[in-house]
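Exercise 7.
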Amino acid sequence: MAFDGMFTHAMVSELREKILNGRVMKISQPYPNEVILTIRSNRKNYPLLLSAHPNYARMQITQIPYKNPAVPTKFTMMLRKYLENAKLTAIQQLENDRVVYFSFETRNEIGDRLPLLLSIEIMNRYSNVILINQQNQTIIDTIKHVGMDQNRYRTLLPGATYRQPPKQEKLDPFTAENSQQLIALGQQFPNREVLAQNIQKEFQGFGKVSALQLADVFHQNDGQNDSEHLTSFLKAADAPIPSLTTGKRLDFTFTALGNDIQNMGAQFGSLSGLLDHFYREKATRDRVRQQGALLIHVVNQELKKNRNKLKKLQKEFTNTQHADEYRIKGELLTTYLYQVKRGMTEITLPNFYDNEKPLKIALSNQIGPSQNAQKYFKKYQKLKNAISYLKEQIKLTEDEIAYFEEIQTQIELAEPQDLTDIQVELENGGYLRKNNHHKKNKRRVKINQPEIFRASDGTRIKVGKNNLQNEKLTLHTASKNDYWLHVKNIPGSHVIVESSDPSDETLVEAAELAAYFSKSRNSANVPVDYVQVRRIRKPNGTKPGFVIYEGQKTLYVTPTEEKVNQLKTKNE
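Solution. The predicted structure, written as tokens, is:
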């Protein structure tokens, strides 16, 4: 990703403008490697996210809602002890590196001034958030503890002396002397990629994207006024144009300078807004894959098992289509029994069911003519009896495949908090071993609430994210006069419009939500059925979330993320 030193410089400028001199009002840690400090500045609350995630380490002001854990971590408690109501007095970047210090001023238990540093180090798997007592340079606590067995040079444990990360032998491009060397480097290498590689090698804070952008700045101007163009590029970090790049892979950048126009994606009003957009889907999907790894494995195994089972059943069913051949051979042998002699291995007889055409019949030379005929009748009867059984098994297996495809889709569309409901459902179905070893201590798991949206006219629309939510929403929560929507014949969410007479526009918006939260999310012209809840029923013995309905009408819609976000914003 492109959260390099240049992007860090730009983000520091943005954070200074918004939260400097604010006070910490609230501290939470929604995920193990991420902490959020709500800072009130200029009569507004800013949720400052500091992430030490190995793949998504960053700092930003986030508007993505988060769920606070029931029990705070030790690190959270330590931050609350020292930083609640503390004033943010400075935000400093360590040269052009991905290390930033947030300086706070507070008072200790006896009222003495206590200056503190909260450091975030954005270094992939070595990323960390560290609370430091600035008076004696000791570590109070870290979001990740690093002992001597992990790093002999730098121990990151409570009580240890704080040492800065090892300094790289690279130059800071923001100093005047180093800027001249950077200009000389630009004149030395005419090849864009080679120049970008050397910028990364010699100068601090350049990722691949920003190095290529600077290489373009030099080359597009043919060496003319390089000093001015470099100054403009570096100043862009203090007045960023947050943008997506859409080359070989989606990425983000703090400026559009020097980048190919055809590779520029959407632009945003702030770097934090850009990061929210970029990480919302990607980080959520990755968290779901990590936290739901066991669920995904179970679902994939069940699908594989049932698909193989279905192939075998269908093959056996195809074989039963030849049952009449065994009956005909048995009848022919009975009719022409006098022509059959013991010891024969085959005989050809006229088939009176097919215009007397000759039919070759295999025989066993170990049994008599009558026993050979009975053998064919027994095979016929066995296959005939198997037909109804195989039809039943094929239907059950197809239902099982459809059920797990539904679960698979729900995991793909799930938020991390929705995985609990899916796990409970698989446990109740016997597909996953329950974690409760002592039945007497088993508590009833509370099902998460469906997501709520608002139509353009203000009507509430609820969307279930998994089978347990769907069933509770449709069969227990919704009014009989409400309207229910679901994508036609495709796995997806149950959607409830809380109105007995919704407008056409509201129904279309609800249908767009149903299409978006389904396997057809990326499709166009998606058919969505809608009907009043009173016309829905659940057959006995069926899987969670399964319902049947009648009297439905169908809308055709094309879902978009922009429309879904609009409906979500209206509710917020």
